[in-house]
Design brief:
By secondary structure, the chain is of the alpha/beta class. It has two domains: about 1-285 and about 390-395, Nucleoside phosphorylase/phosphoribosyltransferase catalytic domain (Pyrimidine Nucleoside Phosphorylase, Chain A, domain 2); about 295-380, Pyrimidine nucleoside phosphorylase-like, C-terminal domain (Aldehyde Oxidoreductase, domain 3), CATH 3.90.1170. Helices cover about 45% and strands about 20% of the residues. The protein is built from 15 helices and 14 strands. The protein has helices spanning about 1-10, 15-25, 55-65, 85-90, 100-110, 120-135, 140-150, 175-190, 210-225, 230-245, 255-260, 265-280, 285-290, 315-325, 365-375, and strands spanning about 40-45, 70-75, 110-115, 160-165, 195-200, 210, 295-300, 305-310, 340, 350, 355-360, 380, 390-395, 400. Strands 3-2-1-4-5-13-14 form a seven-stranded mixed beta sheet, sandwiched between helices. Helix 3 links the parallel strand 1 (about 40-45) and strand 2. The longest helix is centred in the middle third of the chain and has 17 residues, at about 175-190.
Length: about 400
């Protein structure tokens, strides 16, 4: 297998070879089927980002629009947060559901987000460990086969990929993101599955909150119609693609209008509450509890006056992990109250000594480390930065759309 991985690294994989590898890994374990739901079943995958709480917003939106979502997620590692760590910050929320519980919950409330079974695509875990040891992780065909083998282990009607691009993402450049997306779309086409990929910006954090519990609270703000616009934009865009692929909207743009209408109108929040309650979560005063102070609190201040020109997603993610919100090993614990709250907005005029961000840490030592690294994430310049688009384009089996 090591020789195969090295040959793949140097020679690449054709679309046929990538599909064959994907199916071999998928069929090494169980395939989850959810029959007779009475509505289309959809899924979403993000390649990982900083402040990425989109699943927490997207799942209630698509449920409110008459779709069902059964999402198997993982824990965070390194500077990117995991959806399960965010949900685990909710008191009582059960991340472990057996297949029967997951199917029953999706049928009853339209949404379930839980830990992936060890029996789904087990060959992928073995192969990934070997890729890490042989230095062959960053190869588009292997990445696509790894992700799609797990996504295809749950039979769905439509899948949307949120492909993050930027310094805080797995794909640093747009060309790398597009290469992965095209390989993933070819796999979907080979199996007759509806798959699209939306490329989104990850040179800056998404939203204002980075840290597990705080991101859940911010997602609730978005569901109520008054959260950060960038989070809502990504969630609505992904939802629109799922609605259109699932046949819920024939005219271009209708899916986005339908999705946006659920935010602030009460429908998406209602479906969020039904989902969280069904999975054991305690909703009473949840947002306030999730924003309680951490053991050590501090600030990051502007070192000069000017305009906030950039905020490095990578460094903010690393600083949040240092504060206690992330892990360097799978067995490490995370502090649900730890993280970073961005105060100043990109392009905003700031004065020397003004607060750019607040740091919430597990202890004073972690606070000092996070403040030191976090300060280097902010660049203040004499003039405002050029406007950088959040949405970089959508790839479908028909090609790229702006």
């Amino acid at each position: 297998m090591s020789a195969f991985l090295m040959a793949t690294w140097f020679r690449g994989l054709t679309a046929t070879e990538t599909l064959a590898l994907t199916l071999a890994m998928r069929d090494s374990g169980d395939v989850l089927r959810l029959p007779d739901l009475g509505r289309p079943l959809v899924d979403k995958h993000s390649t990982g980002g900083v402040g990425d709480k989109v699943t927490l917003v997207l799942a209630p939106i698509v449920s409110a629009l008459g779709l069902a979502m059964a999402k198997l997620s993982g824990r965070g590692l390194g500077h990117t947060g995991g959806t399960l760590d965010k949900l685990a910050a909710i008191p009582g929320y059960r991340v472990d559901l057996d297949p029967r519980q997951l199917i029953d919950q999706v049928r009853a409330v339209g949404v379930a987000v839980a830990a992936a079974s060890q029996e789904l695509a087990p060959a992928d875990r073995r192969l990934y460990a070997l890729r890490d040891a042989t230095g062959t992780v960053n190869q588009s065909g292997l990445i696509a086969a790894s992700i799609m083998s797990k996504k295809l282990a749950v039979e769905t009607d439509a899948l949307v990929l949120d492909v993050k691009v930027g310094d805080g993402a797995f794909f640093a450049t747009r060309s790398e993101g597009e290469a992965f997306a095209r390989a993933a779309l070819a796999i979907g086409a080979g199996l007759g599955r509806q798959v699209r990929a939306v490329l989104t910006q990850m040179s800056r954090p998404l939203g204002k909150e980075v840290g597990n519990g705080r991101e859940v609270a911010e997602a609730m703000d978005v569901l109520s119609g008054h959260g950060p616009r960038d989070v809502a934009t990504v969630a609505v865009t992904l939802a629109a693609n799922l609605v259109e692929m699932a046949g819920g909207s024939q005219a271009a743009g209708d899916g986005a209008k339908q999705a946006a209408a659920t935010l602030g109108g009460g429908q998406a929040m209602e479906h969020f509450e039904r989902w969280i309650t069904a999975q054991g979560g305690q909703l009473g005063g949840l947002a306030a509890r999730l924003r309680q102070p951490a053991q050590a609190e501090g600030r990051i201040l502007a070192d000069r006056s000017g305009f906030l020109a950039s905020v490095s997603a990578l460094k903010i993610g690393q600083a949040a992990a240092l504060a206690g919100a992330g892990r360097s090993r799978k067995e490490d614990a995370v502090d649900p109250r730890a993280g970073i709250t961005l105060v100043a907005e990109l392009g905003q005029a700031v004065r020397s000594g003004e607060t750019l961000a607040r740091v919430h840490a597990s202890d004073p030592d972690r606070l000092a480390q996070a403040q030191h690294l976090g300060a280097s994430a902010f660049q203040v310049a004499d003039g405002p930065p050029d406007d950088e688009p959040l949405l970089l384009g959508t790839l479908s089996q028909g090609g790229m759309n702006p």
